[in-house]
UniProtKB/TrEMBL annotation:
InterPro entries: AA/rel_permease1. It is found in: Membrane. GO terms for cellular component: membrane. The chain crosses the membrane at residues 28-53, 59-81, 102-126, 146-171, 183-202, 214-233, 254-278, 298-327, 348-369, 375-394, 406-426, 432-450. It comes from Bacillus wiedmannii. It is a multi-pass membrane protein. This is Amino acid permease. Coiled coil: none annotated.
């Protein structure tokens, strides 16, 4: 039983981070771009309009602020732990150092489900924007190639293709792929700035009345709905071993990306709800829609192009994050060695990159994610809560470790973060808990059938 809670020494983790297994190429700007790339996607492009129409009205700005505050607590915890233990694996590795191997394995297993399911879901959503874009040029894709089998189609082919293309890009290594990702993120920020610059001239303050038509409960419901618009900054923690000066750059990347995205969300919401009545925003492509309403069709077309490119950056970030979790678990012996094998030419974990990409592509192409989407949500909330736990434990067990950033008011702020995450988890549907329980059960079987016997800690 004691073996289940054997820990990886903090000293060894720090030694591993200094050994040259992954090339250190990412600076603070690259990390901020990676974080923004992961965060800004379905949130600003899809959720803003839907939540304004159905839950909060113009008060959706407060829904985003509530979600940002909850994520902010978690981001502070991530910033401290990632700058203290700058190694691949995120909460998986942090749990390994503070709680024990079995919990760490389950955290890694949870992260894999979050990243792979999210990649597939975002790729599926990308198809809608892509189809709207190409149809504007008179190109019609057969519905059977846009829809999964359970909805009368054959395969969501665009989702499969874009996932595999981005996997190919990532398999070339982060030095090359980060340039493409930075370009995609800058384009995405550019179209948001374009929307703000044009839309602000069409704002009618009377559209903000009534400001909170669904009351305070609607604002909180909206906050729960848009919470997942902020997921993505956690993916930065998985890239720690490829970061130059991680004690400085990781906290900057994590906190800066969250702050920038919050400001963008609030401004976009204010302008969007000011351009038309919130009742008209019950459409997934609200940003382009409101521009069409005010007669800015050309700008709406540019926004559609930017949406296609911007969502590609989200897929990129989540495939990247999943491969780094595979890498960390494999290096520790909890998964086969092939997952940690680095290609000498590209210096990237090619096998785990392609496994993630192919798995995500198959899910996106053939499986209905309507009932599985909350699987990513419950997993993300659990890992957020666990990061708060690891901060508290590491402060007690290793108070003298060098920390690039320190969470104020420990243990109060981490406990608030943990409580907020658990509250949202409890409010998820029963079916989500059943799916999540089944996934964790598979993880437990993998641990006792393979991981426990092949762990690197057996050699100590």
């Amino acid at each position: 039983m004691a073996n289940l809670f054997r820990k990886k020494s903090v000293r060894k983790l720090l030694e591993d981070s200094k050994s040259k297994t992954l090339t250190k190429t990412l600076g603070a700007f690259d990390l901020t771009m990676l974080g923004i790339g992961a965060i800004i996607g379905t949130g600003v492009l899809v959720l803003t309009g839907l939540v304004a129409a159905r839950d909060a009205g113009p008060a959706v700005i407060f829904s985003f602020m509530i979600a940002a505050i909850v994520c902010g607590f978690a981001a502070l915890c991530y910033a401290e732990i990632a700058s203290t233990l700058p190694v691949s694996g995120s909460v998986y590795t942090y749990s390994y150092a503070t709680i024990g191997e079995f919990v760490a394995h389950l955290m890694g297993w949870t992260l894999l489900s979050v990243y792979i399911v999210t990649t597939a879901a975002v790729a599926g959503g990308w198809t809608g924007y892509f189809h709207n874009l190409v149809s504007g040029f008179g190109i019609e894709i057969p519905k059977s190639l846009l829809t999964i089998p359970t909805q009368g189609g054959i395969v969501n082919l665009p989702a499969v293709i874009i996932t595999l293309l981005l996997t190919l890009l990532l398999s070339k290594g982060t030095k090359e792929s980060k340039r493409v990702n930075n370009a995609m993120v800058l384009i995405k920020i550019g179209i948001v700035i374009l929307f703000i610059s044009v839309g602000i001239f069409y704002v009618k303050p009377e559209n903000w009345i009534p400001f909170a038509p669904y009351g305070i409960s609607g604002v909180f419901s909206g906050g729960a709905a848009v919470f997942f618009a902020f997921l993505g900054f956690d993916a930065l923690a998985t890239s720690a071993e490829e970061v130059k000066n991680p004690q400085r750059n990781l906290p900057i990347g994590i906190i800066a990306s969250l702050v920038i995205c919050t400001i963008i969300y609030v401004i976009v919401c204010l302008i969007m709800t000011g351009m038309v009545s919130y009742k008209e925003l019950d459409v997934p492509e609200a940003m382009a829609y409101v521009l069409e309403v005010v007669g800015q069709d050309k700008v709406a077309g540019i926004i559609a192009v930017g949406a296609v490119i911007g969502i590609m950056a989200v897929i990129f970030a989540y495939i990247y994050a999943a491969t780094r979790v595979f890498f960390a678990m494999s290096r520790d012996g909890l998964l086969p060695k092939s997952f940690a094998k680095i290609n000498k030419k590209t210096e990237a974990p090619v096998f785990s990159t392609w496994l993630t990409g192919i798995g995500s592509a198959l899910i996106a192409g053939f499986i209905d994610l309507k009932e599985l989407s909350n699987l990513a949500n419950i997993g993300a909330l659990l890992t957020f809560a666990m990061v708060g736990v690891t901060v508290i434990i590491l402060r007690q067990t290793h108070p003298n470790l060098k920390r690039g950033f320190m969470v104020p008011l420990v243990p109060i702020l981490p406990i608030i973060s943990i409580t907020c995450c658990l509250f949202l988890m409890v409010n998820l549907p029963l079916k989500t808990w059943v799916y999540f329980g089944a996934w964790l059960l598979i993880g437990v079987i993998v641990y006792f059938m393979y991981s426990k016997r092949h762990s690197q800690l057996n050699k100590l």
